[in-house]
Amino acid sequence: xxxxxxxxxxxxxxxxxxQGGMGIGISLSRLAGAVAAEGGAGxxxxxxxxxxxxxxxxxxxxxxxxxxxxxxxxxxxxxxxGVVGFNIMVAMNHYEEYVREAAELGADFIVSGAGLPVELxxxxxxxxxxxxxxxxxxxxxRVILQYWSKKFDRIPDFLVIEGPKAGGxxxxxxxxxxxxxxxxxxxxxxxxxxxxxxxxxxFGQKIAVVLGGGISDxxxxxxxxxxxxxxIQVASRFVxxxxxDADEAYKQTYLDAGKEDxxxxxxxxxxxxxxxxxxxxxxxxxxxxxxPKKCRGCLRRxxxxxxxxxxxxxxxxxxxxxxxxxxxxxxxxxxxxxxxxTVKSVMDELLGPTV
Length: 355
Description:
The protein has 13 helices and 13 strands. It is globular. The strands form 3 sheets. It has an 8-stranded parallel β-sheet with strand order 3-11-10-8-7-6-5-4. Helix content is about 40%, strand content about 15%. It has 2 domains: about 5-245 and about 340-350, TIM Barrel (Alpha-Beta Barrel), CATH 3.20.20.70; about 250-335, no CATH class. By secondary structure, it is α/β, with parallel strands linked by helices. The chain starts with 5 loop residues before the first strand and ends with a helix. Helix 5 packs parallel to helix 7.
């Protein structure tokens, strides 16, 4: 592994691992707090985080902002002084409000993808919170580094690279997903890192590079560090832990999935994604339209009258364990997970035990 601990400004990770944000309701305070307590960075997903609040259907924004505060406080209590932040998608309606709330709450960092977070620095200008874009290609990294440096005279505190084997929404076209293998994507990661180093030198400031997407064992983790990254991001492996906030039925779908059950899907908002095949997906793939019961205005580009199903409702079903009516996002190597572990056991397996 690359040297530990990892420094991100005044933050210190004792172990070089970020837990990836997973919504809706999969990575909340229990999981994020447990990862932070073990020396990694715990990430709470802000995506429809207030889905269990009584007023969620009537006022989802208010419910979500309230839940952000509650979940961060609970994570802090579990984290033993460790690092905890939020994943906030650019594609969300009210993105600016969620970002400002995270900053005002005193979260340690914001990771932001599902679009380029071009205006993120302006939203947190007066706060000490660390910020990071999620990118998948060198072109995206170049655009965001150039834009932030020119408009805001700053660079990211760290940068997250999500590769083609990640779960959930993917930052690739279908053709790119078919093109990339470990070697060709390793070359792309190298190009991103070289671009990052240019801006480090220009600003005299370290930008930690975090690589995620299909990192499911020690060999893959070591491979990420050999590419020159400073830390890894892991999501799917943490679902199958006792501490994960997901319903037990959701976790069981990970344990039961075979390699052939993990498929690429098209999100209602046009983005490719990766999920576990189930009755819900089979209905959608046959052309059945499952209209939203209620539009909660969650995504900017969503057109409720045209979408095949509501992604919020499908992911809420997943969080509640209603797995046959759910969209079950997962990483490409989820089929390798065969038993429920703990956050510590996953981190020890991927990074080696602490001394």
